[in-house]
Amino acid sequence: MSLMGGQLKLQPRTEQKVIQVFMYLMTSIAVLVLVFILVVILKNGLPQLNLEFLTKNPADMGREGGILSTIVATIFLTFIALLVATPLGVGTAIYLTEYTVESRITRIIRFGAECLAGIPSIIFGLFGFILFVNKLKFGWSILSGGLTLAFMVLPTIIRTSEEAIKAVPPAYRLVSFSLGSTRWQTVTRVVLPSAIPGIVTGVILSIGRSIGETAAVIFTAGSALRMPTSLFSSSRTMSVHFYILAKEGVSMPKAYGTAAVLVISILVINIVTYYLMEKYIKRKS
Amino acid sequence: MKQRGILVRDFSHYYGENRSLNNINLDVYRNEILGIIGPARSGKSTFLACLNRLNDLIPGSRVEGKILVDDQDIYGPEVDVVALRRKLGMVFATPVPLPLTIYENIVFGVRLLGNNDRGELDRIVEDSLEKAGLWAEVKDRLHTSALKLSGGQQQRLCIARVLALKPQYIMLDEPTSGLDPISTMKIEDSLRTLKKDYTIILVTNNTKQAARVADRTAFFLMGELVEIDETRVVFTRPSDKRTEAYLEGKFG
């Protein structure tokens, strides 16, 4: 080791070592944060979990009972969000990649989607409140909340689908056309099947965001604790329930229990989908 | 007199401002193997893409002149491009099996027409693979991924996939450029058999391959057709000294 021109000059091998340790530290911090969150949530939440917690509706503002109605509301809201956002997002991605050439219009569309991605979720909540709750008179409801979430996750789905579609080898398209397929047949029979794993990744990300979203939902789906009975029921999702329980000091144990269910369900969804994707990719190749 | 299948008249092709084919005139006879030789970027591949209009897919592509396939002007307003591409099957330089099973690769084009009759598909698969000289090697694993085949097998699969379309013409763009000598020999053998039923256009950057299998050979250079004649004539008494220089390996 010697000092040259004021700069600390390390032997290549030492330098390698230092960088390795540094990178290792950075990675560990990222993983540690995750572990820390999981430990805190599960340590406080797991003791709350039992069959009753999952199968009973909340009672006494959430102090008693379980969280069944909020689980149902979360599932419905997320389902509607993805039912709307997936076709819209994948459709936009197909249009951008397969049906147009790069131009001012595609750049504007892409820029618009990027901007949409950068908008804070509470603004989506306000937008959903003005458009769906008031203007379209859907009221505080599963439908308003689901549609709002759909617009919120749309950029993610467009972006990931576009990347997945772009990653399909151009030669596949050429072969498909040369075998006499139309553009639509090429898209549905060659491009999309190859892009599915990437598209699904975007959808999973969006499921995670929808389940966890609070600000956009509290403005649009409301916070009624009843079991939702229709698309127009005002209802409370798990994350909103957690927020209210914790913020208003209703019941910290129940709040942790809800958080644990949230975290575990997102983990399970991730693990199951990645497992299914692995199988799908294996079968294809 | 041999029957003419394809007539190319005063044909030029442009990518934007760049002219990639300049005033080509040639005929392709039925049931012959027409070899097309020439150095890289001489317009050979572009010429094939113009014959089945794959060039349509490239933005800024433009043509002048005429190409008649079976007396039909393929750049005419009423041409069914999809049908044209089935009539002129194409095999690319790199074998590109789609990420499907061997079976589904072969019937890909057939299914596009809405034909899903199992018995008929089975027959087409066996028949096409047989003609491409691959049946014996894969008949026990038709339902495994085509990506697991060797390079040579993949290329014969691509030929079989084209045959399944029941084309009249088969165009091959340097089909053996990435293959070993034995795989190359197998493909050349199947081409000799196939010409009984099909008209074949073989683009190759290997002049010896043209000498081995082509009935007639065309020499392209910088977008121009320098000469076209019986292969024997082109290789022994070329009429243009650029052809002679290329064949002697003075450039390439």
Question: What layout of secondary structure does this protein have?
Answer:
The complex is a heterodimer of chains A (285) and B (252).
Chain A: E1 2-4, E2 7-9, H1 12-45, H2 51-55, E3 58-59, E4 64-65, H3 68-99, H4 104-118, H5 121-135, H6 142-166, H7 170-178, H8 183-212, H9 215-220, H10 238-247, H11 252-284
Antiparallel strand pairs in A: 1-2, 3-4
Helix pairs in contact in A: 1-11, 3-6, 3-8, 4-6, 5-6, 6-8, 7-8, 8-11, 10-11
Chain B: E1 4-15, E2 18-29, E3 33-37, H1 44-51, E4 61-69, E5 72-73, H2 81-87, E6 88-91, H3 102-112, H4 118-131, H5 135-138, H6 151-163, E7 169-173, H7 181-194, E8 199-203, H8 207-213, E9 216-221, E10 224-230, H9 231-236, H10 241-247
Parallel strand pairs in B: 3-8, 3-9, 6-7, 7-8
Antiparallel strand pairs in B: 1-2, 1-4, 4-5, 9-10
Helix pairs in contact in B: 3-4, 3-6, 4-6
Structure overview:
The complex is a heterodimer of chains A (285) and B (252). Chain A has helices at 12-45, 51-55, 68-99, 104-118, 121-135, 142-166, 170-178, 183-212, 215-220, 238-247, 252-284; strands spanning 2-4, 7-9, 58-59, 64-65. Chain A contains 11 helices and 4 strands. The termini of chain A are far apart. Chain A has one domain (52-284): MetI-like fold. By secondary structure, chain A is mainly alpha-helical. The model of chain B has no long low-confidence stretch (mean pLDDT 93). Chain B is 36% helix and 27% strand. In chain B, α3 (102-112) crosses α4, α3 packs parallel to α6 and α4 crosses α6 (151-163). In chain B, β7, α7 (181-194) and β8 (199-203) form a beta-alpha-beta unit. In chain B, the strands form 2 sheets. A 6-stranded mixed sheet of chain B has the order 6-7-8-3-9-10, sandwiched between helices. Chain B is an alpha/beta fold. Chain B has one domain: Rossmann fold (3-Layer(aba) Sandwich). Chain A binds chain B through residues 101, 169, 171-182, 185, 189-190, 193-194, 284-285, and chain B through 52, 54, 57, 59, 82-83, 85-86, 89-90, 92, 94, 96, 98-100, 108-109, 112, 145, 147, 158, 161-162, 165.
